[in-house]
Amino acid sequence: MAIMSERVSLQDQEKKAAAEAALSYVREGMSLGLGTGSTAAFAVRGLGRMVRDGLKIRAVPTSRQTRSLARAEGIPLTTLQDCPRLDLTIDGADEADRRCRLVKGGGGALLREKIVASASRRMLAIVDSSKLVEYLGAFPLPVEVVPFAWPVVLPRLAALGCSPVLRRRGDEPFVTDEGNYIIDCPFKTLDDPSGLAAEISPLAGVVEHGLFIGLCHEVIVARGSSTETISCGPGNEP
Ligand code: 5RP
Prior knowledge:
Number of strands: 15
Structural class: alpha/beta
Number of helices: 6
Radius of gyration: 17 Å
Mean pLDDT: 95
Strand content: 25-35%
Shape: globular
Bound molecules: ribulose-5-phosphate
C-alpha cells in the first residue's frame, strides 16, 4: 500500500512538472483553452496563481469540471462564441506518441477538447512519463456516440478489430457534457491511427473519436522532475 501511494505521488509530481512547463508558454492577453483531467487541473491551478499575481488572460474550459475549477481559481472565462480563435490550449492525454498524436477521452471530455484544440493556434499536451508510448492503442480508444445510435455503432466498431464496451457510471451509461455516450475500444496497438480515424468518423451516430492527429503541436513529457518537449509543429500527420 505504501509503495502504491508513493507511485501515485510520483506520477502526480510528473503531472505537475509537465503542467508548470506548459504555463511558461502563457503570455499576457492570451485567450486559452483549458483541458480536462487531473494533469490539466494542475495547469488550471497554476494559471489561477498567475491570474491572482496579475496576469490578464481569458479562457475557454473544455468541461463542466474544468469550468468549476477555473471559476474557483478566479480565472476569467469566455466562450467560443465570444472568442472563436484561441492562442493556446493546454490539455492532458491518455497516450501520446513522438509524432504528437494523442489518444484522449479517458475523462469523457474528448468532444469539447477536440473542438477547443481545433480552435487553437497552438495545442500543448502535458503528460507524465507513463503516457508516452511507442505505439498508440494500449489505452482503449474512446468514441463518443449519439445515445440513440450506440447499439448500431458498437458492432461496427467491433468489426474494426476490437471488443468495444459502452462506458458506464454505476448501472447507467456514462453521459458526456454534450449529452452523448462513450464506447471504449481496446484495439491494443494502432498500426495506422489515421486510417482507423478515417474508418470511425463516417459511421452514422459517431460524434467524435479520441484520436487527436494533426492537432497537437508539442507534447511536454515529465520524467521525475525534468521535462522533455517533443515538437511537431502544425499538421503533424502523415
Ligand atoms: C479527458 C482527457 C484527459 O486529458 C485524459 O483522460 C488524461 O487525464 P489525466 O490527466 O487525469 O490522466 O482526455 O477527456
